TrEMBL record:
<feature type="domain" description="ACT">
    <location>
        <begin position="303"/>
        <end position="374"/>
    </location>
</feature>
<feature type="domain" description="Prephenate/arogenate dehydrogenase">
    <location>
        <begin position="18"/>
        <end position="295"/>
    </location>
</feature>
<dbReference type="InterPro" id="IPR008927">
    <property type="entry name" value="6-PGluconate_DH-like_C_sf"/>
</dbReference>
<dbReference type="GO" id="GO:0070403">
    <property type="term" value="F:NAD+ binding"/>
</dbReference>
<dbReference type="Pfam" id="PF20463">
    <property type="entry name" value="PDH_C"/>
</dbReference>
<keyword id="KW-0520">NAD</keyword>
<comment type="pathway">
    <text>Amino-acid biosynthesis; L-tyrosine biosynthesis; (4-hydroxyphenyl)pyruvate from prephenate (NAD(+) route): step 1/1.</text>
</comment>
<comment type="similarity">
    <text>Belongs to the prephenate/arogenate dehydrogenase family.</text>
</comment>
<dbReference type="InterPro" id="IPR002912">
    <property type="entry name" value="ACT_dom"/>
</dbReference>
<dbReference type="GO" id="GO:0008977">
    <property type="term" value="F:prephenate dehydrogenase (NAD+) activity"/>
</dbReference>
<dbReference type="GO" id="GO:0004665">
    <property type="term" value="F:prephenate dehydrogenase (NADP+) activity"/>
</dbReference>
<protein>
    <recommendedName>
        <fullName>Prephenate dehydrogenase</fullName>
        <ecNumber>1.3.1.12</ecNumber>
    </recommendedName>
</protein>
<dbReference type="Pfam" id="PF02153">
    <property type="entry name" value="PDH_N"/>
</dbReference>
<dbReference type="InterPro" id="IPR045865">
    <property type="entry name" value="ACT-like_dom_sf"/>
</dbReference>
<dbReference type="InterPro" id="IPR050812">
    <property type="entry name" value="Preph/Arog_dehydrog"/>
</dbReference>
<dbReference type="InterPro" id="IPR036291">
    <property type="entry name" value="NAD(P)-bd_dom_sf"/>
</dbReference>
<dbReference type="InterPro" id="IPR046826">
    <property type="entry name" value="PDH_N"/>
</dbReference>
Length: 374
């Protein structure tokens, strides 16, 4: 691969040139296709499901394959249990192409391919940290990767031009490439993605047999912590099985912490019990503070809670008037009040903007439910 395979331009000009072949036309594959097509890149799609393939093509994620296709880059976007097989097939079928995959586990397919004795010089594993609760080509979006990390796993055999090709893929779809080893990647996603899925599912499972009266009290807290519990079980059986060891390490540590808290709560009046509970909450505060926020910053924002009538156009009016006040909305969370015809818009703003936003909105007739520091 030479530098002619890359076009560095400004504005909407793509970095990639030539044809990109995407194997797997589900959510991630079709979303990559949409994003590249929007940049003018020639995208060819392949999928073992004819119906899925036709649907992705109909939605504009790419075109059907031709016998004379000579892709410069191949993106494998298939379930984890067949990722290694498809990578091997694509390396064999297209001996001049660089092959990457977007599976959420990186070490297992790499080891499987190594064990088969394959030349992996042209293979570079990668993983975009993006997704939705819904899957399939019908849920694909061109903006799915904008601002999201895209991990690229190189090794000592990776050629610079090939690495640049995969990084250009990430940049063309709006993501931020980040280099990691497969081991570093899998340990990281075990903590930040895979264990949260297990925890959300376990908590949500408690709701399945809960009394209706209890569910009526559900607020934004339980909705936030169980949102990802709607994910597909079939996919997560594969992901968790492929990354079992680092996931078990985190779950074991979490189970130990839960046991410690439970023991403290069994005797809350015992010496030291309240300290255990307080330290647990404080350590959670410390962890949340380390999470990167907007633009990767660890900035603190103030929370402005505005009551919004449940009628058309109200959110648009609220944002418009915040804009007139010169207030930038850093983040937004909506909470609906059960049985009430209004919702609560929790708006994150810069600390310096809180006072002006509060007074300005009140002058315009908005009801402020609260203002807090995050």
């Amino acid at each position: 691969m030479t530098d002619t395979a890359r076009t560095h331009g400004n504005g909407n000009a793509p970095r990639l040139s030539g044809t990109v072949r995407i194997v797997g036309a589900g959510l991630l594959g079709a979303s990559i296709g949409h994003a590249l097509r929007a940049k003018g890149v020639d995208v060819v799609l392949s999928d073992t499901s004819p119906a899925q393939l036709r649907l992705a093509i109909d939605y504009g994620a790419g075109r059907a394959a031709r016998d004379d296709d000579a892709p410069a880059l191949i993106v494998v976007s298939v379930p984890p249990d067949v990722t290694a097989d498809v990578i091997e097939a694509e390396l064999t079928a297209f001996p001049d192409a660089v092959v990457t995959d977007v599976a959420s586990v990186k070490l297992e397919p790499f080891r499987a391919l190594k064990d088969r004795g394959l030349d992996l010089t042209r293979y570079i594993g990668s993983h975009p940290l993006a997704g939705r609760e819904r899957g399939g080509a019908i849920s694909a979006r061109a903006d799915l990767f904008i601002g999201r990390p895209w991990v690229v796993c190189r090794d000592e055999e990776t050629r610079a031009a090939d690495l640049a090709l995969v990084e250009d893929l990430a940049l063309d779809v709006g993501a931020m490439p980040l280099e990691m080893t497969p081991e570093e990647h899998d340990r990281s996603v075990a903590l930040t993605s895979h264990v949260p899925q297990v925890v959300a599912s376990l908590l949500a499972a408690r709701l399945a047999t809960a009394d209706e009266d209890a569910l009526r009290l559900a607020g934004q807290g339980v909705r936030d912590t169980t949102r990802i519990a709607a994910s597909a079980p079939e996919l997560w059986v594969q992901i968790l099985g492929a990354n079992a060891e680092p996931v078990v390490d985190v779950l074991d540590a979490l189970a130990s912490d839960l046991t410690t808290v439970a023991e403290a709560l069994r005797a809350p009046e015992a010496p030291g019990a309240r300290r255990v509970i307080a330290e647990t909450i404080r350590q959670g505060n410390d962890g949340v503070e380390r999470l990167p926020g907007k633009h990767g910053q660890n900035r603190k924002f103030e929370q402005l809670v505005v009551m919004v009538d449940d009628t058309p156009g109200q959110l648009g009016r609220l944002f418009g008037e915040l804009g007139e006040l010169g207030v930038n909305v850093e983040d937004l969370r909506l909470e609906h009040s059960p049985g009430a015809q209004f919702g609560l818009a929790e708006i994150s703003v810069a600390p310096a903007a809180l006072h002006g936003a509060t007074e300005g909105l009140q002058e315009r007739g908005w009801r402020i439910a609260g203002a807090t520091n995050e």
